[in-house]
Amino acid sequence: MRFYTLCRFIASALSLFLLWSCSQQQPPKAESDIDKPATTVLTNNAENQFKELIEHHWQKNMDYYPEFASYLGMGNDQRNSRWQDISLESYAAHLQDTKNTLTSLTAIDRSKLSDADKVNYDLFLWQQQMDVNESQFQTHLIPITQRDGIQALDDFANYVPLKSVQDYDNWLARLQKLPALIAQTQTLMEKGIASGVMPSADTMARVPAQLKKQIVDTPTDSLFYKPFADIDSKISASDQQRLQQQAIEIIGQQLVPAYKEFTQFFENQYLPACRDTHGVWDLPKGKEFYRYLVKYFTTTDLTPEEIHQIGLQEVARNRAEMDEVIAEVGFKGSFDEFVQFLRTDPQFYYDTPEALMEGYLAVSKRLDPELVHLFGKLPRVPYGLKAIPDSIAPDTTTAYYSSPSADGTRAGYYFVNLYQPHTRPKYEMEVLSVHEAVPGHHLQIALQMELGELPMFRRFQDFTVFTEGWGLYSERLGYDMGLYKDPYSRFGQLTYDMWRSVRLVVDTGIHYMGWTRQQAIDYFKANAAKTEEDIINEIDRYISMPGQALAYKIGQLKILELRQQAETELADKFDIRAFHDVVLGAGSVPLYVLQANVEQWIKQQQLVQ
Predict the structure, then answer these.
(1) In sequence order, what DSSP letters do the residues of 195-232 get, joined into one string?
(2) For residue 44, what pLDDT is reported?
(3) Which residues are CB-contacts of 133 (< 8 A; sequence separation ≥ 6)?
(4) How does DSSP classify residue 2?
(5) What is the H or E stretch that residue 416 is in?
(6) Residues 34, 58: Cα–Cα separation, whole Å
């Protein structure tokens, strides 16, 4: 979900905010009540205590993470006009506040809660405990990756309201405060150098070129000026002129100098201090940190060694099925030669970004009508298709999804990468679209946001193993939707499944077993038909996002296992639409909760005459 640390640098899927970003990011400076246990606002009844606690926590988080509030459409003028305070002082205050929340939560008598609230309690407790546990690893001291950071904040204009004069004034206020955020970011990075909490030099080497895109001679050429170049015509000419002039002054006098100074720091001090190694095993408490991340992202007790072995088994299974497709198309060569054929033959690629976009649009239009055969409940909010911004396209992945706003003013969007169309094969377009759009991320996330009976934190909570596991499971549903009729498209589906299987091997290899970046790239190239451009970007993603890539395959395998269990135990009573509604009906949950929900549904169906 665009990891890209959503609370501050929303450029991708909502799924990464609550399961990684919140534990990395620091809230604004403490309010007067931040050092007080949250019990001070609660009543004596357990149900009321719990509801008031989670509502109190939600509202605080909207203030702590103003970018996330803006993204959800839950901002106000105060939230929409500032960035998150990421100072070391705020980090310490937020950590203490989280500990106070845990104290208040554990003081509530869980046994007196309803069954539904017991689940809410357990999930809320799990998240707070994991956030406190992660603090020991000091992940907040790496505030930039090659995929997100202050170098990409211009893109955030795509996720904030910009319709009224007040909206633009709020955005200008944010721009005025950006130099302070840049300075705070540098302070964290300096602390990272001193503490030995540093990223890999290979991934950070991409950042200077991104930073230099923010350094312009003419303010109107700035990426930050784009929202002002085409202001809504409903705004008066005089206001437009004022807003544009203010933007020019802020960009030229404040932003460009701040980016110049930070770029010098990054190139002269930070990049030379980055690690020559690639995995988190080489950080303080590195292997312990990775074991924590495995639990965090998979919600299981699997060890890195066990996940590595699962990956090897899945790679072998996928390879056998891919060999069958190669035989079907009559290719007379080795697997490596077939993969090279797919990577280089012009028939598999569009010539221009425009043609590639038209191809994605055509695929997307075929998906929606098929959903009624697989789901009893569909989301109300639609999704659209957009190109990934040119400024970040070279350094990001093939596609990503951006969720709708909670207030209904922004649809969900499926973003596709049009950079270098000769690296974006046609045979991957169907499987990519079902994952990122429907029945994948858009259907699941939009439905979750519409679950009005859930408390707010549940409606927007994201367990990556569920969200991405569902996305990968959805790729298999393409067969039920009449896709993959062409053998090359079937090979594309297997390529994507292989891609996620390879992740289990290379992520554990890099971060726990000491693999090098090149070793991971070579393994990926030897087992998947993705282009080298995609493979390198993917490996660099895993390096900067340790553990996250494990969630996809582990989640998919659990959903497939539960579907097989339901089909076997229910036989003629099995209804695929009802099964999917149960899987999605509780929102994003850990795998053990999902299993309990499905097994309870199976028992209920067995009682139906």
Answers:
(1) HT---BHHHHTTHHHHHHTT--SSGGGSGGGHHHHT--
(2) 57
(3) 292
(4) -
(5) strand 412-416
(6) 14
Find the length of the chain.
609
| Tokens 């620091």 sit on residue | 26
- Do residues 515 and 279 make contact, with C-beta atoms less than 8 angstroms apart? yes
- Residue 471 Rama label (left phi>0; alpha psi -120 to 50; beta): alpha
Listed in sequence order, the residues at least 6 apart from 228 whose beta carbon sits closer than 8 Å to its beta carbon are: 168, 243, 244, 247
Domain borders along the chain are 14-199+201-274, 293-554
By CB atoms closer than 10 A (0-12, 13-18, 19+), residue 91 is: buried
What pLDDT digit, counting tens, does each position of 483-502 carry?
Answer: 999 999 999 999 999 999 99
434, 370 Cβ separation under 8 angstroms? no
- Dihedral sign for Cα atoms in the order 95, 96, 98, 102: positive
Amino acid identity of residue 259, one-letter, is Y
Strands 412-416 and 399-402: antiparallel
Cα dihedral across residues 22, 23, 26, 32: positive or negative: positive
Q: Give the integer Cα–Cα distance in Å for 72 and 529.
A: 37
Q: Tell me, what's the pLDDT at 12? A: 32
d(CA 403, CA 149): 20
Q: What is the pLDDT of residues 383-411, one digit of tens each?
A: 999 999 888 888 778 899 999 988 888 89
Q: Which of 402, 403, 501, 398 is nearest to 450 (CA)?
A: 403
Residues 6+ apart with CB under 8 A from 216: 222, 251, 256
Under 8 Å between Cβ of 442 and 383: yes
DSSP-derived letter for residue 481 is T
Q: What pLDDT is attached to residue 13?
A: 31
Q: Which amino acid is at 240?
A: Q
Distance CA(206)–CA(325), nearest Å, equals 37
Residues of the chain with pLDDT under 70: 1-44
